[in-house]
Amino acid sequence: MKASVGRIVHYQAYGTPAGEFKSVPRAAVVAEVHDAEAGDISVCVLNPQGIFFNRVQYADPPKAGCWNWPPRESP
Predict the structure, then answer these.
(1) Are 45 and 26 in contact (CB under 8 A)?
(2) Is the peptide bond preceding residue 25 cis, with omega within 30 degrees of 0?
(3) Residues 14 and 23: beta-carbon distance below 8 Å
(4) Which residues contact 28 (CB under 8 A, 6 or more apart)?
(5) Is 8 left (phi over 0), alpha (psi -120 to 50) or beta?
(6) Cα-to-chain-centroid distance, residue 37
(7) Tens-of-pLDDT digits for all 75 residues of the chain?
């Protein structure tokens, strides 16, 4: 799959250095595609505390500060 504007992806949030908060996935909307083949996109990340915008790279397996596709849920 290739990222395109408006798609929902996961942004892997950074945890805290001491581990009080773990690195967790956050919902994000693709705002711009810089290089679809390389997975270089800009996203609007939806956090419980608010939103932020970031330019990120694709990573599989998930890696903090990067994006990946949400897992498929079975019914």
Answers:
(1) yes
(2) no
(3) yes
(4) 8, 9, 10, 11, 43, 44, 45, 46, 67
(5) beta
(6) 16
(7) 899 999 999 999 998 888 888 999 999 999 999 999 999 999 999 999 999 999 999 999 999 999 999 998 877
pTM to 2 decimals? 0.88
Dihedral sign from CA coordinates of 17, 21, 24, 29: negative
**Three-state SS sequence of the chain:** CCCCCCCEEEEECCCCCCCCCCCCEEEEEEEEEEECCCCEEEEEEEECCEEEEEEECECCCCCCCCEECCCCCCC
